[in-house]
Amino acid sequence: MKNKADLLNQYWTDIYFHLHYIHTDKITHQAIRIMQLIDKQGNIGVSEIASFLNVSHNTASEHVKRLENKQFIIKKRDPADERKAFICLTGRGKEVLDRNTSLDQEKLKQVLNELDEKEQCAIEQALKILSERAKQCKF
């Protein structure tokens, strides 16, 4: 018998497998992870990326350069300290990140339209609670 974590992971992978966007971008999983970090945490630098990926500063810097060259991210100077730079997603970067991590809106709408209002509310509430608790965890 599977435990609850196993079941939730199975449900999540089923949902993502069936409802994700068709991937058209040539981008590595590592690049997506970097872009997610930038999106979720904001105002980060190469050091934070290196720590997050558990790689050297030089390796993280190379990843950043590749993403800059693709115009997915941009470095901005910290107005409070010109020596520091932080990394932001560009509009194009946000689009690529969304296509590679989100569910396809149209597919999701089709599935939700097959559910009654009570089921839709239950799903929304459950995912909201899980999202909020996940944000509170310090791993």
Automatic annotation (TrEMBL):
One matching Pfam family: MarR
Keyword line: DNA-binding
HTH marR-type domain location: 1-132
Tagged with keyword Cell division: no
Top-level taxon of the source organism: Bacteria
InterPro entries per the UniProt record, alphabetical: ArsR-like_HTH (IPR011991), HTH_MarR-typ (IPR000835), MarR/SlyA-like (IPR039422), WH-like_DNA-bd_sf (IPR036388), WH_DNA-bd_sf (IPR036390)
GO biological process: response to stress
Cell wall biogenesis/degradation is among the record's keywords: no
Gene Ontology MF term list: DNA binding; DNA-binding transcription factor activity
Stated name of the protein: DNA-binding MarR family transcriptional regulator
Organism: Cytobacillus oceanisediminis
